């Protein structure tokens, strides 16, 4: 353990003049237990939630400055299949956050920051449920992650379904009526006409985290229906403090130089936000119409969120009354996309995975895994609302493992045009540079096909 003499947060003075230790006032000076080595090098293209891409892999080594024998701290963890990772959104780029944000799934409508998974929060702390592949010495190998390379990790906790999953409560507390914030006691048998035994059966089927999958068009859970960093737009700014971090030490732990952010800046993403604002009900109606479903009359014209909450359909029906999500989480306006690869991209992928004349994959175990990861990232539409709506004719770039992917988006699909070794790809320090206008998409498509 760290020495008690190490510098810590200064005691805070209370209004009455007495001094309270920092912990008592909630002022926690954190020290990362390690820095994540991730297959995603930049925010752009990193899945918005861990459930999106099961092949996204990472390694976390516990720092010796935290524990002399890091492996001791991981003892017993190998018996768990999943772990919670608490981390810092260290590449947020700025320290401000807003009370209301526009998550991509709301396609321009606003909701309170605490009803989202926005990276821009008063304390820039992220929470990811990752699959624990193995523990080796002082290192954890993870999959199904949504964090970028270099992410400072604050803590690891085992996922325990009995504690962490509401459907595992044996004694339901009752319904929470979100409309008027009233708690209504309700018994299991009253809930939906199901018998207790049927209910229990359903619970036992769902007491483990659902396996992640990369398939297209799967029903989404709250985890993957939420916001991406690039897409949040804010108001009611709040300034937050940042703990100082030792960059040299961090780079040493990672074995790399500190990297420069490659994803679009918030300023860029925020510009034009007024055009994007649309009420949730309008978006839903649009979407239903797009799908050819019966139109629903929009209820008002506000860009604020409706208060209704619905059970998540991907959970057991009997368990649903323990856990509710708002309709927008379920009825997201963004459909999953079909993902295509041009013959050139197929060739690139083959070349890259063979490792002939260049580096081969570090995180993926095969070309097939790389392909599935790319498909998973793209089918969830990683673009910000801004890009989706106003920059449709732009190329989109992202890097996963050693693959630098260039693609474009059409109506209902994403097409991979090129896959190059990240070392070969032009480094995009200025996100604007990555927004190459296609002009005529088809002509550029032709260029890529014949290149
Ligand atoms: C919407 S957040 C959700 C993270 C976590 N599952 C949660 O709910 O707190 C995931 C996005 O955060 C961004 N991100 C990941 N790691 C980051 C980091 N270290 N700093 C800043 N942004 C990061 C990526 O763009 C990713 O798509």
TrEMBL record:
Q: Which domain of life is it from?
A: Eukaryota
What GO terms are given for molecular function? Answer: methyltransferase activity
**InterPro entries tied to this protein:** TrmO-like_N, UPF0066_cons_site, YaeB-like, YaeB-like_sf, YaeB_N_sf
Q: Which SUPFAM superfamilies match?
A: YaeB-like
Specify where the region named Disordered lies, as residue ranges.
171-308
Q: Which Pfam families match?
A: TrmO_N
Cytoplasm as a keyword of this entry, yes or no, is no
Q: Compositional bias (Polar residues) spans? A: 177-215, 259-270
Q: Which reaction does it catalyse?
A: N(6)-L-threonylcarbamoyladenosine(37) in tRNA + S-adenosyl-L-methionine = N(6)-methyl,N(6)-L-threonylcarbamoyladenosine(37) in tRNA + S-adenosyl-L-homocysteine + H(+)
Give an example GO biological process: tRNA processing
Regions of compositional bias (Basic and acidic residues) in chain numbering: 220-238, 271-287
- Domain annotation TsaA-like: ranges: 30-168
Query: Per UniProt, which keywords does this protein have?
Result: Methyltransferase, S-adenosyl-L-methionine, Transferase, tRNA processing
Question: Which PROSITE patterns does this one have?
Answer: TSAA_1, TSAA_2
Similarity comment: family membership: Belongs to the tRNA methyltransferase O family.
- Annotated protein name in UniProt: tRNA (adenine(37)-N6)-methyltransferase
Source organism per entry reads Camelus ferus (Wild bactrian camel)
């Amino acid at each position: 353990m760290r020495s008690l003499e190490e510098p810590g947060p200064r005691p805070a003075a209370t209004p009455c003049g007495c001094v309270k230790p920092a912990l008592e006032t909630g002022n926690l000076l954190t020290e990362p237990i390690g820095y994540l080595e991730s297959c995603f090098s930049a925010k752009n293209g990193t899945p918005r939630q861990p459930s999106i891409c099961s092949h996204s892999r990472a390694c976390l080594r516990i720092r010796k400055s935290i524990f002399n024998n890091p492996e001791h701290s991981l003892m017993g963890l190998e018996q768990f299949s999943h772990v919670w990772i608490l981390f810092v959104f260290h590449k947020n780029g700025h320290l401000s956050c807003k009370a209301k944000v526009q998550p991509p799934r709301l396609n321009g409508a606003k909701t309170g920051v605490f009803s989202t998974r926005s990276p821009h929060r008063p304390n820039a702390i992220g929470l990811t449920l990752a699959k624990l592949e193995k523990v080796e010495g002082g290192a954890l190998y993870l999959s199904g992650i949504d964090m970028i390379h270099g992410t400072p990790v604050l803590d690891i906790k085992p996922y325990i379904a009995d504690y962490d999953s509401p459907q595992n409560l044996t004694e339901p507390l009752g319904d929470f009526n979100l409309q008027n914030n009233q708690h209504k006691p309700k018994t299991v048998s009253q809930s939906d006409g199901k018998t207790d035994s049927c209910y229990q059966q359903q619970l036992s089927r769902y007491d483990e985290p659902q396996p992640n999958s990369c398939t297209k068009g799967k029903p989404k859970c709250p985890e993957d229906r939420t916001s991406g960093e690039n897409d949040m737009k804010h108001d009611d700014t709040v300034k937050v403090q940042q703990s100082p971090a030792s960059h040299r030490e961090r780079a040493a732990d990672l074995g790399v130089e500190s990297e420069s952010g490659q994803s679009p800046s918030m300023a860029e993403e925020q510009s034009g936000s007024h055009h994007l604002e649309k009420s949730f009900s309008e978006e839903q109606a649009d979407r239903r119409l797009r799908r050819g479903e019966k139109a629903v009359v929009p209820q008002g014209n506000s860009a604020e969120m409706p208060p209704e909450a619905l059970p998540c359909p991907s959970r057991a029906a009997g368990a649903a009354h323990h856990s509710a999500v708002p309709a927008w989480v379920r009825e997201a306006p963004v459909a999953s996309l079909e993902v295509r690869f041009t013959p050139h991209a197929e060739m690139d992928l083959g070349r890259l995975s063979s490792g002939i004349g260049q580096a081969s994959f570090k995180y993926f175990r095969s070309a097939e895994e790389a392909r599935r990861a790319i498909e998973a990232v793209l089918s969830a539409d990683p673009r910000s609302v801004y890009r989706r709506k106003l920059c449709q004719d732009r190329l989109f770039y992202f890097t996963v493992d050693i693959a630098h992917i260039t693609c474009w988006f059409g109506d209902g699909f994403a097409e991979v045009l090129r896959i190059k070794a990240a070392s070969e790809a032009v480094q995009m320090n200025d996100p604007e540079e990555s927004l190459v206008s296609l002009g005529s998409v088809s002509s550029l498509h032709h260029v890529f096909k014949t290149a």
